[in-house]
Specification:
Helix content: over 70%
Distance between the termini: 40 Å
Structural class: mainly alpha
Number of strands: 0
Largest sheet: none
Shape: elongated
Order of helices and strands: HHHH
Length: 102
């Protein structure tokens, strides 16, 4: 589970940290809640496999709330992404809307 987390962090490194100060607050909250949720996914099985079932259950419940926060922040960022995409309609982009409509 740690290797996929490292791959995920590597994949979004430039997109998030490259323009850190230009990102909206929702992007920051989404990044950190997503990273925390994934960290909870890593440590929860560890607790279960080492006999710490109370911690495993507590981390699982907190993980549900973090997963909800990740979904909520992703949905709250959709409007910003749609507006950004609409501004690219007249510019040179790899796929024209007709590519998806035909």
């Amino acid at each position: 589970m740690i290797i996929p987390m490292v791959v995920m962090q590597f994949g979004i490194f430039l997109d998030y940290w490259g323009d850190f100060s230009d990102n909206a607050w929702a992007v920051h909250v989404h990044y950190w809640t997503g990273s925390a949720w994934y960290l909870f996914l890593v440590i929860q099985p560890y607790y279960a496999s080492h006999g710490q079932l109370n911690r495993h259950r507590t981390v699982g419940i907190i993980g549900f709330f973090l997963a909800g926060a990740v979904c909520f922040t992703a949905l709250s960022s959709l409007h910003r992404d749609i507006v950004s995409a609409a501004s690219l309609v007249d510019k040179e982009i790899p796929f024209k809307p007709s590519f998806f409509m035909e």
